[in-house]
Sequence to fold (468 residues):
Amino acid sequence: MSDKTEAELLKEQLFIKREHGSKCVDEPTLTKVDEFADSYKKFLDTAKTEREFVIHAIEQASSLGFTEYDSSKQYNAGDKVYINNRRKAVILAVIGKAPAEAGVRIAAAHIDSPRLDLKPNPLYEADEMAFLKTHYYGGIKKYQWMSIPLALHGVIFRKDGVSISINIGEDEGDPQFCIPDLLPHLATEQMKKPVSSAFTGEGLNVLIGSREFKSEKGAELVKLNVLKLLYDKYGIIEEDFLSAELELVPAGKAVDIGLDHSMIGAYGHDDRVCAYPALQAIAELAEAPEYTCISVLADKEEVGSMGNTGLQSAYLRDFIYDLAEAQGGSGSKALAKSACLSADVNAAYDPNFADVFEKRNAAYINHGICVTKYTGSRGKGGTSDASAEFMFRIRTLFDEDDILWQTGELGKVDAGGGGTVAQYVANLNVDVVDIGVPVLSMHAPFEIVSKIDLYMTYQGISSFFRAR
Ligand code: MN
Ligand code: MN
Fold:
């Protein structure tokens, strides 16, 4: 005989249950959570830019039998292929037993993150200090990028055509870079300004040197010394900056956060915390799945998914068309029957900024993978809004596979908003819903996620790929 009241029993039957991961994730699963988090942290340290992510993703995939896709070839169930899109985006696919025309399963995430790009003419000297001019990429709060150690990553072409990979500031003993901020003693006027105007894009100038090239006379000797060091090490001259792609990112490694080691702090969780699970979920598909599975890891999401490496480009659509047509099928039929998890981060509820969240519909850290029916801002502007049918399908799948999941909106209705790549995949006539990891301090140089949520996102994408 239960000693519960009728009201208690009815509540159990009728009320929605929201559970903290600690209550429903068992010890063996927690061990897997920690192992997955460790491998993620290692990957993050080597893949801070989209280019680095592509290199390491293809390296791992190749070791597991993925080969470069050739649209003129016939592929069989279980074959694994990848497409390297201009070294900045990558598609990985495992061919299914069913023809592509029966629909494919797509996990889409992005591998670019907010950062400071160098301008084409970056280097200058001012009052015996050498600086680099930057142009920020993506949505940043500029003050967060002052007074922190920065590393320089990217590629620069020498006049002779040789491309040089740059990675300065990550290894032990490497120099790092910094944007000095104003001391509080002299910041009386600065502190009166709103944060949005106190820090300007043109003020994000990165200190790169302060010692002069030894000379009896001559101007710009600090700049000359910097250029001489670059020339000696890489053979590059100032003109080579014109065609370079160099990015300043926060220096340093991913670390555990909290005495309980429950969280990870790092640069660029948005969106590697979803791209990495999407990569691992496709990489581990050992046998042929029922439907062809595709992980597309895209560039340029932070600036609107424009350009040939962003998801507004035709490369994903073309790949699915090529797959279907090589089997004598139709690309448009394949797309119409396809389904996609648009894997991107969501804002995690933060009690220190409670007023911008709506507590009943916010995502919480440690509550699992967040499923977001719609994004956008104001009246759902700019969202693809997943259908009730597709939401139900994902809800059922995650429940059946014991995936810890939650729903979450990006803040209060009129507080702001944002979008993801979901709309661009949905525009191809594919069923899409947003899923992903809740993040604290999103778009800051140092973002925080929960290890349980990371693991559940990986499990969620895996179960989507394996579903019949
Ligand atoms: Mn994102
Ligand atoms: Mn973002």
Notes: The chain has a mean pLDDT of 96. The longest strand covers residues 115-126.
